[in-house]
């Protein structure tokens, strides 16, 4: 299995433990069914960069710092905006707490660090975007 698949499956497992499932939409929720709101996430590996130590020596391994993005849409209506927004923040806090525990990710990553989160409001949903940094080891 590739390092990408190992890392992705590890993050998917952590989010599934929080009650979410991977969306059928690959990039955004613009065309997603409203039934995916509150329950589904979109996961993307955005970039990677070799660590400085690996680039200075020739050895049988190197470490890649990867930026991953998690997007979760939360339904919005005139009747429940405040409740939904508050629930979204509670779920965000639970995800951050789960990702902060090394015993939850040490089987698939060398380091996993929460970086930042943001919320965007659209006509139909709130979009929670979370960014995490994952360091993986490539060995040959």
What report would you give on this structure?
With 140 residues, the chain is α+β, with helices and mostly antiparallel strands. The chain has a single domain, classed as Phage tail protein-like (STM4215-like), CATH 3.30.2000.10. It has three helices and five strands; from the N terminus they run αββαβαββ. The protein has a five-stranded mixed sheet. Strand 4 (111-121) and strand 5 (125-139) form a beta hairpin. The protein starts with a helix and ends with a strand. 23% of the residues are buried. The model has no long low-confidence stretch (mean pLDDT 88).
- Describe the main β-sheet briefly: 5 strands, mixed
Number of separate domains: 1
Please state the CA-atom Rg, rounded to the nearest Å: 17 Å
CATH topology: STM4215-like
- Percent in strands: 35-45%
List the helices and strands and how they pair.
Layout: H1 3-16, E1 21-22, E2 40-50, H2 52-56, E3 61-75, H3 81-99, E4 111-121, E5 125-139
Parallel strand pairs: 1-2
Antiparallel strand pairs: 2-3, 3-5, 4-5
Entry summary:
This protein has 140 residues and is an alpha+beta fold. The protein has helices spanning 3-16, 52-56, 81-99; strands spanning 21-22, 40-50, 61-75, 111-121, 125-139.
Quickly list its features.
39% strand; STM4215-like; 5-stranded mixed beta sheet; elongated; alpha+beta; 140 residues; 3 helices
């Amino acid at each position: 299995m590739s390092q990408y698949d190992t890392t992705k499956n590890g993050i998917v497992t952590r989010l599934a433990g929080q009650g979410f499932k991977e969306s059928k939409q690959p990039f955004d929720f613009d065309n997603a069914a409203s039934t995916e709101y509150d329950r589904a996430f979109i996961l993307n590996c955005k970039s990677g960069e070799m660590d400085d130590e690996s680039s200075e020596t020739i050895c049988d391994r190197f470490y890649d710092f990867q930026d991953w993005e998690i997007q979760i849409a939360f339904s919005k209506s005139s009747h429940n905006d405040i409740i939904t927004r508050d629930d979204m923040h509670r779920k965000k806090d639970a995800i951050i707490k789960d990702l902060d525990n090394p015993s939850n990710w040490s089987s698939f990553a060398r380091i996993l660090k929460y970086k930042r989160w943001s919320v965007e409001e659209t006509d139909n949903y709130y979009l929670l975007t979370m960014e995490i940094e994952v360091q993986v080891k490539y060995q040959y």
